[in-house]
């Protein structure tokens, strides 16, 4: 499992079927970070989200969410907006 402060991760085919298996995702690059978060929120399991939240800081997650929320399904977007309002 990855820890906060990790700069890179490897794509999993289950979540990133459009990338070559094992492609490195640079979490320091905002566009790659946003792609990573969007895919996990849209297609990930609870364990993927747990790993995501253990990998990046809450502030980084919130900033990225602000950039990608328009691309998320309404239910997902609403869930995370309420999460930020009530818990963060």
Q: Notable features of this structure?
A:
two-stranded antiparallel ribbon; mainly alpha; 56% helix; 88 residues; 4 helices; single chain
Description:
This protein is mainly α and 88 residues long. It has one domain (8-87). 56% of the residues lie in helices and 7% in strands. A two-stranded antiparallel ribbon has the order 1-2. The model has no long low-confidence stretch (mean pLDDT 89).
Give me a quick take on this structure.
By secondary structure, the chain is mainly alpha-helical. The protein has helices at 30-43, 46-55, 58-68, 74-87, and strands at 8-10, 24-26.
Which of globular, elongated, flat, extended, rod-shaped describes the shape? globular
* Uncertain spans: none
N- and C-termini, Cα separation: 23 Å
- Backbone CA Rg: 12 Å
Question: Based on helices, strands and strand pairing, what is the structural class?
Answer: mainly alpha
Number of DSSP strand runs: 2
The SSE string, one letter per element, is: EEHHHH
* Number of structurally distinct domains: 1
Average pLDDT figure: 89
Number of helices: 4
Strand percent estimate: 5-15%
Share of residues in helices: 55-70%
Biggest sheet architecture: 2 strands, antiparallel
What order do the strands of the largest sheet run in, or round the barrel if closed? 1-2
